[in-house]
Amino acid sequence: MHHQFNSPDGPVDVTVAKQGDDWILGEHKAVLESDGRIRIHLANGVSGYATVAKVGDNWWVHFQGHTFNLERIEPGATQGGNDGGLTAPMPGKVLDVLVEEGQSVESGQTLMVLEAMKMEHRILASATGTITDVYFSAGDQVQQGSVLLAMSEEED
Amino acid sequence: MVSKVLVANRGEIACRILRACSEAGLESVAIYAENDAASLFVELADESVMLHGDTIAETYLDQNQILMIAGETGADAIHPGFGFLSERADFARAVTAAGIQWVGPSANAIEKMGDKMTARITMRDAGVPVIPGEEIESTDEEEALMAIQQASTRVGYPLLLKASSGGGGKGMRAVEHPEELLDAARSARREALAAFGDGRVYLERLLTGSKHVEIQVLADRHGRTIHLGERECSVQRRHQKVFEEAPCATMTEEIRAAMGKAAVAAAMAVNYEGAGTVEFLLAPNGEFFFLEMNTRIQVEHPVTELVTGVDIVREQLRIAAGEPMSCGELHIRGHAIEVRLYAEDASNNFLPAIGPLAVFIPPEGPGIRLDTGVRQGDEVTPNYDPMLAKLIVWAPSREEALQRMRRSLEEFVVLGTTTNLRFLRELCDVPDVVEGTTDTTMIDRLWPDGWSPSVPVHIEDAALMAAAVGESAGLHRLRSTPSSRSDDPSGPASPFATLNRRYP
Question: Does the CB of B41 have a partner CB in chain A at under 8 Å?
Fold first, then answer.
């Protein structure tokens, strides 16, 4: 069966096949245990139990001290590109807006200051460009993922 | 006499105190905000009372409401834990005035030590060395900024701005260059004002290459003030501790004795009662400087408990009841390490994370202690501090303690919410940590552009395969995860359900 996951380095295609009780991926082998864990035997001789859980579209996997959060890309879904939108990394409150629409900004410049969990977080420009929209003002509550500002990047 | 303790806190430390009450045969009362109704600490108490209100100020910081609940439930003592109201002298005073025993030092001692500027002055007068710096008393924004600017030229760069009412890294800013000073000062003042209602900040020279070493003290009403040796907490990110140990790897008997003496003197200077911690910066040449005194139980108290055999929370309860402390002479045995499990993305500037704890399986085996405020199925919300639990290990030697910590961190499974587990695991391999030569700038120095995990390719292959097998086998439809908890598979309860019990 073919699946696609988003890894930090981009989408990864994974195809596994079932042979009897075993799942096969190239030279790697896996067995689904009755307690829901997955016993993995890798081609290089490494083996161990993976603990997995699906939350929303994401598969969380723990294997040998490493934890992964792999978003499953639904078949047919298109990849949303980054349009230069600047989003809230966490829910919180806008403390300060340091730019206005139409203002030119430099890469790394502080655009907005958020407060969450009693700590301040600065929203920085990821590139040099112009602010095209400011969606929140000081005092507003924002949700995780809320688009805070929009900017157009400068073409070199 | 103390017979019923109200715990004015939540999460991990509330659990720690409630368990101590249970062991001591004391009745206990938990108070909780509505969004904590399903939290672990609520069920560990004999009685739990919900606080009215939405914000932290309207709940865990609402002194009147908490005192009212204490009265209604007949609690004769209040344990504040750490954070929240633990270092609020006005609360300690109000509790005492209500005829309830405050588990902690007097309001007077809290005031003297809680205001960091007053503490600096008190310590200087008591002959305890303090870090070169200047106090800025002005509360007016413009006046304060001007004074800070003038003081900065005398203190020198790099310097540290610290909130006078601060703690936990809040209202603290390191300033490397003069041109960053005003922005940093405004930001520190604003954060301090929001967190503590007091925007005053002071300046200290930033001493790089120093260790953060602190001494645990205990004082009772029977004339005893003792210290329980040191903890080293140099490994910090954003001025918050992540890795703590006892004893300090580079400690000598002479420095321990001198530091212990200074800590006891600090406690006695304010007629201290109960458990407290005197923090020092220890320079490479063995010189040490007073940082501050925390007039409460501390997050990292378990490492001291494991190497000294003293139950500090139990001693707090004993001392509050007017009994003499039970600990004898100081004996340090073996080595203990604590790491703080945070819901945060260590690879993205340690930003707090939220989500369900779909799987939460702590490590087990010899020498392991878990102080947790959460369990599997809980939801990590943005409402409170992102610290979920503390993992503490003990072993006969430092080397073995590190080995045990590595093993424990590899066994620890948390799925559904991003945590710093892998960061902590990699920390155990850092040469400075292995050698015991950590200092307070280590994390920034090692990872100036942020940390990211090093993942062997075959481990990632295994993870991708596990996810693909899970999806292919429909594992998510077979097992219930917290996000699907609302669909109850068992159907409506039968009205005829009975409890069948057979007697032999």
Answer: no
